[in-house]
Specification:
Blueprint: H1 11-20, E1 26-29, E2 43-48, H2 63-66, E3 72-77, H3 80-92, E4 99-100, E5 103-104, E6 108-112, H4 119-128, E7 134-135, H5 139-143
Parallel strand pairs: 1-2, 2-3, 3-6, 6-7
Antiparallel strand pairs: 4-5
Length: 151
């Protein structure tokens, strides 16, 4: 945690080595770099940045086309503008946010910005739009609200 793994030149080598040894590998990336650098046998969780983060321009939106069926997408949402942005990106995924065979293809996670958007409000928007996404809550911030970041 705390950094972009695809900035490290050795990440694809490490991932491939672990996969060859039979491990299941999950890599979370911020979506700014080409995810094809890492085998699609690795579960890639792509955290696309919404406008409210100030980092949306850094998103490599070509990554939407490189997702495999097992990959996941995450959006941290702080406003209705962020929600609409995320919804537009999952629509661009071409239906990957629909139920397929009783499960959600390309699991998509919507997380409210802690202290800025109430989870209840985000849940309401998800239900109103009938989106097949997971509502993700930062449980550690609820359980340990006074803890400093990085502890």
């Amino acid at each position: 945690t705390g950094g972009e793994p695809l900035l490290q030149a050795e990440t694809p080598v490490l991932v491939n080595g672990l996969l060859k040894q039979g491990y299941r590998v999950i890599l979370e990336t911020n979506g700014s770099l080409d995810i094809r650098r890492v085998s699609n046998q690795c579960v890639r969780i792509v955290d696309f940045k919404c406008p409210g983060s100030g980092m949306a321009d850094a998103n490599n939106l070509k990554n939407l086309d490189y997702l495999s069926d097992q990959d996941e997408v995450k959006f941290v949402i702080g406003s209705r503008e962020d929600f609409n942005y995320a919804r537009a990106l999952i629509e661009r995924m071409g239906g990957s946010h629909k139920k397929k065979g009783g499960r959600i293809e390309n699991s998509i996670h919507f997380a409210p910005v802690f202290g800025k958007l109430e989870p209840r409000q985000l849940a309401k928007w998800i239900l109103e739009e009938n989106l097949f996404v997971h509502l993700q809550i930062q449980i550690h911030k609820i359980i340990w609200p006074t803890r400093k970041r990085g502890i």
